[in-house]
Amino acid sequence: MPQLVIGNVTSEYMFGCSLASFGTKGTHKQHAISTRTAWLLHNGDAMLTHRPLTPEFRTYLASVLDLRSVTLLSMEDGRNTSTFADQESLLSADTVDRLRRITDRSWTLTPYLYDRSIAALARELALDVSDADLAFFAQGGSDVFNSKSFFRIWATGLGVPVAPGQVCRNRGAIARAVVNLLPHTGSVIVKEDFSASGYGNVLFTQDSSVPALGASTTHVVDDGISAKGIEALLASSFPAVSDIRDFPVGLRPSETIVEVYYPNSRTLYSEVQIAEAPYRPSVLNYGDMRMEPIWNGFAVPPIALPSAAQDTMLEWSVTMAEYLQQTGYRGYLNCDSILTQDGRLLFNEVNARIGGCTHMHFAAQRVLGPDYLQHYTLLTRNDLQVTSFEKLAWGIARNEHLNGHNGTSGALLLVDDVPYTGTVQYLTYGKGVGAAQETEQRLQALAAAC
Question: For the domain 264-363, what is the CATH code?
């Protein structure tokens, strides 16, 4: 059955703040994420992204995946002017009409985030989606499993190992929680409920040398700082409400998560696919998250991870996926965790949607085979500076260590954002960690010369 892939990364359910607050570069990056879902395509499929794939990337992708007959649509091609792929733009007459012309009841649906707008669109197009799935997602079923605050509730109930913390609603409660939690490690992170990639997160630390992994703002505070002092810093750097009952116009009334921050921890992830019961959820891939200081790529599988930590991570990932399956969720589940310096494996959050690793997984499967985790080390990075995608792709094709023809190493270009931010996202691989690192260095050197 053909599938309709929708890269609705800029859904109103993805972030707790306006996309305009990211600035031009940040907005471009979100639109670039929308295009990476192209790696999920097969012949006969169609895809809707916010902006069009670049001509150079379309040519490259067709060559790598042998795509001869796919339909590529974008919001920018139509009459929509919104920077969001949200309810207003997805359910507009123009968008619905263009999608209706290319789909019918035999088509399945693969969105980046299966939010309420997507559920309404699936019903409008009469796609091949079960009534149970439509009902679940139409009620906001995916929302609760992308909420960091709700995660702490159900994960604690299941016994999942999580960092000490507290869910708060207003600025005063957040400040008190920060003060109460600081004695654990001297560092506390304050997280927005519905933001991705560390956007908006604030780190409070008593040690200026602590790297702020997963946070966009850091406040170095003195030992013994008062809740009033924390509250004053929050007022300048975190969009929390000052009073429980009076939400400012336009501010989403969501929760705030305050957690103990473990400096110098190792950041890990796992991705699980959740199908209809009785099929058990299956682990697709897992690895290290490269934090610089926010996430900027993966090392897959994790490099020299102790087997006990890996077993704990994967066992709990499947247990959490089984819980979501019982509630009615179907799709991808991405689980973020850390390994502390004293050897504890703690989960930070989960995201019930396509993740930053999903397109990497599909690309690796198509190019390296379904068992790539057993034979290769993969290294990805999101922001490689380059002046020409076409020249870099040409150079890769002519380099015996990068073109994959030797069967032991190679490089793939996963996203082309050159016209907008001057960057590409890449995947390099090799048979072993050393080979993958050497391949990555070769690619970076080639990019610098392009």
Answer: 3.30.470.20
71: which strand partners?
Answer: 46
Tokens describing residue 409: 């190493």
Fold annotation for 376-449: TATA-Binding Protein (3.30.310)
Q: Order across the sheet with 345-351: list the strands.
A: 345-351, 331-339, 266-274, 282-291, 295-300, 377-385, 423-430, 409-417
* 307-327 vs 148-158: helix crossing angle, rounded to 10: 100
Q: For 213-275, where are the alpha helices, taking DSSP H only?
A: 227-237
Q: Which two tokens stand for residue 127?
A: 């796609």
Residue 178's alpha-carbon distances to 42, 172, 183, 219, in angstroms, are 48, 10, 9, 12
Q: What is the pTM of this model?
A: 0.92
Q: List the Cα angle 190/334/389 in 5-degree steps.
A: 95
Q: Which residue has tokens 């505070």?
A: 221
Which burial class, exposed, middle or buried, applies to 181 when counting CB atoms under 10 A from its CB (0-12, 13-18, 19+)?
A: buried
Residue by residue, pLDDT tens for the chain (450 residues) are: 999 999 998 877 776 555 566 677 777 788 888 999 999 999 999 999 989 999 999 999 999 999 999 999 998 876 666 667 888 889 999 999 999 999 999 999 999 999 999 999 999 999 999 999 999 999 999 888 999 999 999 999 999 999 999 999 888 999 999 999 999 999 999 998 887 655 678 999 999 999 888 788 899 999 999 999 999 998 887 765 554 444 444 444 568 999 999 999 999 999 999 999 899 999 999 999 998 877 899 999 999 999 999 999 999 999 999 999 999 999 999 999 999 999 999 999 999 999 999 999 999 999 999 999 999 999 999 999 999 999 999 999 999 999 999 999 999 999 999 999 999 999 999 999 999 999 999 999 999 988
- Residues carrying CATH 3.30.310, the chain: 376-449
| Closest by CA position to 189, among listed 173, 201, 171, 176 | 201
> Which part of the chain is CATH 3.30.470.20?
264-363
Q: Is 45 strand, coil or helix? A: coil
How far apart, in whole angstroms, are the C-alpha atoms of residue 66 and residue 166? 49
- Record the tokens describing residue 360, joined without a space: 């990497």
